[in-house]
Target: Vesicular integral-membrane protein VIP36
Amino acid sequence: MHVQFKVHGSGKKSLHGDGIAVWYTKDRLHPGPVFGNQDQFHGLAIFLDTFRNDLHGMDRSFPFISAMVNNGTVSYDHGKDGRSSELGGCSADIRNRDFETYLAIRYSRGRLTVMVDVDDKNEWKECIDIGGVRLPTGYFFGASAATGDLSDNHDIISMKLYQLMVDHTQEEENLDWTKIEPSVSFFRSPKDNIDDPTGNFRGTALTGWKVFLLLLCALLGIIVCAVVGAVVFQKRQERNKRFY
Model:
């Protein structure tokens, strides 16, 4: 899907909001608290969030684009800007641009890719790329927006859908894709993720340090055992020499 959109308004700095959402859901859109749509939805949502609610989450800049897959059991946390349920995301300067801005959403063989063209370069920049996503067929496409206590203009100029020609395995051909439950096979806790300055989502250094410390401790343990073994062996050799 290619979406041409425009977010604009007279609000300066952070005095604007809230943003746009593009949906692929089991039910048609119903008015609700999540960017104008209902919470605990079934399906996929791409959020173009223009307002920071979490004042403690200063490690990312807004506007921020994120993705969420829901099976109807998870609520979107506005207070934390959806961090507890997002699959990934990137910062993108999408407000008050003097040129056309685009969003591309691609789903193929369980892989979800989101790209943006918001710099007037006529080229796509990767924003989200995650595998293990399972989405059924037969859902509804849609878009919504919300303003909250502030205001902004959210224009959807066009939404164009393209069918991808993909070769499926025999097992995939026999699968009833209408009965698949929306899910993600690999999901990282938002506590283990930070916003990368390059615009990608990655694990924090803490996880890497844990692995490093474990390896270091194991290596030190091996070295200590080797030294102790060498000392014991040397003392035994000396005792044997004295005996003879």
Q: What stands out?
A: The chain is about 20% helix and 35% strand. The CA atoms of residues 75 and 211 lie 32 Å apart. The first strand starts at residue 2 and ends at 8. The helical segments are 170-173, 205-243.
